[in-house]
Amino acid sequence: MAASRRVTRAVGDVLDLAPRRGEVSLHRLVEAVSADRGRPIEIKMADLPEGVCGQWRQYTDRDEFLIQQGLPTWERTLAHELGHLVLGHEGIAVADMARMSSEVAGDDLISYMLNQRTGCMGPGGEDIEQEAEDFAALLIYRLGRMPSDRSSIVQVRLGEAFG
To answer: Long-range contacts: 15-24, Cβ < 8 Å, 24+?
Structure first.
């Protein structure tokens, strides 16, 4: 699993926020990131457009991760959206993308675009999607190797380094 140093560092930073007591789960890591940023992150299941597994929505007072209802790999999608947030991906405004990519937009296209997370729509969109995927894969992998009641992140990292 080859991840860039930037992704590896971001995963390490998130795991450093893991609670010292109790179960270390993806949900608790999202809570820890929220507390560290001083900004609420809400996780909601939603009916998203076909082909959309998750979205990160930014509001003035909070962030929301929307996850497609019934998705069998919802944790991977949640980790992917968290990756976008901690890696600082911003995307471009949907309206700007519409102007750049279409001369005439029908109702179906407008509806589809308004339901898209803007981070994957602009120049470099494929790169940030891959970066978020790498983040999700590495976070889920490392999270699975952590003791359920985290006693020492050092033990986990030594185990990863030396097998």
So the answer is: 15/139, 15/142, 15/143, 15/146, 15/153, 15/156, 16/153, 18/146, 18/150, 18/153, 19/150, 20/150, 21/149, 21/150, 22/149, 23/148, 23/149, 24/143, 24/146, 24/147, 24/148, 24/149, 24/150
Higher pLDDT: 139 or 92? It is 139
Confidence of residue 107 (pLDDT cuts 50, 70, 90): low
Whole-structure pTM value: 0.72
- Give me the domains of the chain, ranges plus CATH numbers: 5-90+126-148 (1.10.10)
For the packed helices 74-86 and 5-16, what is the interaxial angle rounded to 10 degrees?
A: 100
Sort strands 41-46 and 63-68 into parallel, antiparallel or unpaired: parallel
